[in-house]
Amino acid sequence: MYKKLIVSIMLFIALVVSVEAKQHRTKPNILLVLLDDVGFMDFGAYGSDTATPNIDKLGKAGAMFTRYYSSPLCGPSRASLMTGQSPHQVGAATLAEVLTDEMRALPAYNMTWADQQQTIASRLKSAGYQTFVTGKWGIGDIGANLPHRFGFDRSWVLDSTGSSNYRAKSYLPHYLEVEWYEDGKRTSLPEDFYSSRNIVDKMIKYVDEADPSKPYFGYLAFQAIHIPLQVSPEFINKYNGVFDRGWNIMRQERLQKAIALGLVPETTTLSDGAHNDREWNSLSDREKAYWARVMQVNAGMLESADFHLGRLISHLEAKGQLDNTIVIVTSDNGPEYNTLGKTSKPAVKAFEKFWMAIEEWDVSYENLGQEGSLAAIGHEWASVSAAPFHLFKFNASEGGMRVPLVVSGPGVEANKGFVDSRAQVADITPTLLDFAGINYNPDEFYGRSLKPLLTGQSDNVYGENDAFVFEVSGTAALYRGNWKITKTPPPHGDGNWHLYDLAVDPGETADVALKHPSLFQDMLDEYNAYAKDVGVFELPPGESSRKQLVINAIKGTAGNYWYLFVGLAATLLLAVYLLFVFAKRLIKRMGNS
Asked: Could you read off the pLDDT of 81-118 as tens digits, one per residue?
């Protein structure tokens, strides 16, 4: 009797285990791919001159969004992506590098997460998922919010806003080094390191070591195409001649492509661009060659990332896992416009060149894209990358926040094509929880699940009167239906609020606030309520994130290289003393004569 009872219990346990294992196996794997500083039309399927065949294949098999918004800065975007919250709600409202002391004292800007902070990884892990992350992390203060504390089983991450793609070297004067961590511990890079290749290699390793009976969530965060732009010459040289016609012509071409593809309405017109844009034909032949080559490096680096992503996709396919994997590919914000040692104002450029000389960075034509190169595309090409929209990263303009989003995999309507419904970065976490079949309270999130839209059950998840807000260091926007209010501080804006009808003017060329005063005031009131609720810090007039970035960079450089300044001061004092002694003796000799 006891033997039968034991056997029955064992069979029951085996049945439960078998059912649970089957349930795990039927849950989809999830691969979230984040690229860095990729503009709206930078994927081939969106009309770019850059070859991205692997991303394009995913997009054409599923859905490609044309009204997906992310924060205009990487840290807040990543915080929102990982939590489904507004970045202010999780203390990561901007970058640590642009904070003032006053901002640091506020909850929205504390840059450090409490242990109980939930993420997409911790929520999926609680439901039986294995969780991995490789690549750029960059949320809050360096080392404060590492992924092993927030639900990731395995992690190999750069905790910085960026780095050399060939070694652990900072691209900013704020720091002497950048830090890579594996599972929460400092680690070194291999001798033959290249970011896109090794980030993918590590993800393949984690997937291969995973328990095949359980689903997994992989977060793959490329450094491409953040400053410094670096890639091997074979990828660069594929684009010889492609960008020689210059940014003025190519920005117009992107507008026409966007209209032809249906990415924007036919009424779309281009804005005037940035306040300090140069005419391509005003450049010398040497300058044209330089800037065309820079854009070749940019394109080559993105194609390289796509190539290495393709290796991962092929590996999953060979393992029989791809058909049960949801793949999301997007960008953290619009294209970078800053350069170092090239287009800054004279005083700032002198400081940048001083620091670059110390750290052996260069921006020479001969070394563009290679180790030691600090190449960046500058604001004119950034306006092409962001076309047909206005401005670029750091700004709450369409060019700074409207980025590509590709979603494919089980449950996603096949061959859905371009989707013009509104979506935002905070939507990703609830969307993935929904696809994984995990119950949650929608009120927990600032974002909404996009699953009804992706499965064809609904055309929109945001109604005409539903709003969402972005704010980073003084630049801000509120979206409601096709309406948008936004403000951009100097130097790229006037710091005032403007109203745009994105249904006809996604280029943000015609402020219609005076035509719709009640709507404008109502949206402004809604923004102010949001700002008060989440604790937005309003920058004083004349202040900006760009200005504070320079101030903090100078402070960091002074602290990092104090010995050089002490030596320089000592040398100057000695020179003054010797000059004084010489002058004194000369006067004495003249008096004796």
From this structure: 999 999 999 999 998 888 888 888 999 999 999 999 99
E strand or H helix at 121: helix 120-126
* Helix, strand, coil percentages, rounded to 5, for the chain: 45, 15, 45
Q: By the 8 A CB rule, do 368 and 293 touch?
A: yes
* Model confidence at 363: pLDDT above 80: yes
Residues across the chain = 593
* 0.85 surpassed by pTM: yes
Rounded to 5°, the CA angle 374-376-377 comes to 160
Torsion of CA 128, 129, 130, 134, to 10 degrees: -150
* CA distances for 85 relative to 73, 89, 435, 512, angstroms: 15, 6, 18, 30
On the question of pLDDT at 24 being above 90, the answer is no
Half-sphere exposure of 172 (CA within 13 A, CB side): 20
User: Is 186 strand, coil or helix?
Assistant: strand
Residues 6+ apart with CB under 8 A from 508: 271, 389, 390, 397, 398, 484, 486, 498, 500
Q: Taking Cα atoms as reference points, which of 55, 139, 136, 66 lies closest to residue 96?
A: 139
Q: What residues does 500 pair with on adjacent strands?
A: 484
Residue 369: CA count within 13 A, CB half-sphere? 22
